[in-house]
TrEMBL record, chains A, B:
SUPFAM superfamilies reported in the protein's UniProt record: Homeodomain-like, Tetracyclin repressor-like, C-terminal domain
A Pfam family reported for this protein in Swiss-Prot or TrEMBL: TetR_N
Name the record gives this protein: HTH tetR-type domain-containing protein
Organism: Bellilinea caldifistulae
Any one GO molecular-function label of the UniProt entry: DNA-binding transcription factor activity
Amino acid sequence: MTRRAKFRQITIDEIKSLARLQMAEGGTASLSLNAIAKHMGMSGPALYRYFESRDALITALIVEAYEALANALEETAARFADQPVRDCLRQVLLTYRRWALDHPIDFQLIFGNPIPGYQGEEKITAPTAGKVFAPILKILQRAYQQENRPYPSFLENLPPQLQVRLSHSMREFQPSLPEKVVYIGIVGWYHIHGMIMLELFNHIQPLISDPATFYSNEIERLMDQMNL
Amino acid sequence: MTRRAKFRQITIDEIKSLARLQMAEGGTASLSLNAIAKHMGMSGPALYRYFESRDALITALIVEAYEALANALEETAARFADQPVRDCLRQVLLTYRRWALDHPIDFQLIFGNPIPGYQGEEKITAPTAGKVFAPILKILQRAYQQENRPYPSFLENLPPQLQVRLSHSMREFQPSLPEKVVYIGIVGWYHIHGMIMLELFNHIQPLISDPATFYSNEIERLMDQMNL
C-alpha cells in the first residue's frame, strides 16, 4: 500500500469511527457528514472525497455490520464444526444473540428502524446480508442432506403460494440448496429475531426473570421442532 | 368542557399531530419541540405550557400508540368473543400484524429503536403497555381455565430459574392469572413479533413470496403447538 493509500484508509476508518460514535449518541438517524467533517477539522467538500454522500457512508457501515455479524457466526460454526449438528447450531445461535447485545447500534443499523431518507444500495448490501445466513444454512444442509434427518412435518402442508426466494448469493454459495432448508432457516430466524429484538429494547425483561435462560430454552425447543 | 379547556385540548392535539408528522419524516428520534413551536407560530416557552419537555411529549405519544393498538386488539377480541377460542385468537393476531403495518411509526415508537436521551416514565407507559397484552391473555385464560385445555407439554420442563413476572397491571386485570398462561403469551408474542419486525423493515420480503400467507400459516402452527 502506498503512503497515500494508507493515509486514505486511516481517514476512512476515522470517519467510520466518528459515524458510529454519532449513531451511538444520537441514534442511527442522526448521522451528519458535516458534523463529522467539523469534528475532523475538514471542510465538507473534503470529506466528500472519501464518501460521496451520507447514504454511501451508511451503506459502508451497514456492510461492515453485516460482515462483523457474519464473521462472528462463521467463526463459531468453524470452531464447533466437528461437534454434532445440534451442538454446533446451538453455539451459532447463542453467538447471534451475544453479538446483538454486544453491538446494539450495529444491530439497529441492520435490523432496526429504517433511517429516514436513506436509499440503500441493495446490490451492495444484499450479498453481505446473505453472508449472515450462510453459516446457519450450511449447518442445516449438513443435518438434512448429509445426515438425512427427516424434515419437520409442518413442511408437508405449506400453502402452495408460499414460495421461498433463493437469492443470487444463496445460489452462488450453494447451487444445490433445497428450498426446504431455506424455509426452515427463515422460520428459525424469526424465532430468534423476535426474542432478541424484545430483549434488546427491554420489552421482555419486565416479563421474565432471565432472558438468557429463556433464549437458551427456546432455541432447544426450536431445534426439537426441526428434528435437529 | 370550558372554552378554555377546549382550546387547550385542540392545541395539544395539534402538537401531537405535528410530532407524528415529524417522526414520519425524520424518524422517531427527530422530534423537536422548537420546530413544532415554530411551525405553530408559538414561542418555545409557550409550547412548554402544554408539554413540559420533549420526553413528556414522547411519553404521551407512546401511551396513545399503545392504547390504539390495545383498542384494535380489544375490538377484534370483542367482535369474535362468541367464536371458538382459536378463531377469536387468530383474528386478534391478524389484527396485531395489520395494525403494525398500517401504523409503522407508532409501532417503531413503542417497539423500535430507543429514542436517544429519552427517559421513559414507566409508571405511565407500563400500564398502557399491559393493555396490549390483556386481550390475548384473556383468550388464553378462556382456553386453559374455562375450557380446561391441556397446557402444552414444553411447560413441564422449564428451567427452575425461569420465572414469569406478573406485572402490577396484570395482577390488577386478573388476580387469578396463572403464570403458565402468561408464559404461553410471552412465547407467542416473540413469535409474532419476530415475523412482524422482519416484515415491517423489509427483511422477509426478499426471502418469501407472500409474507401475509407466511404469517397466517405460522400462527396456525403456533396455535397447534399451544393446543388451541
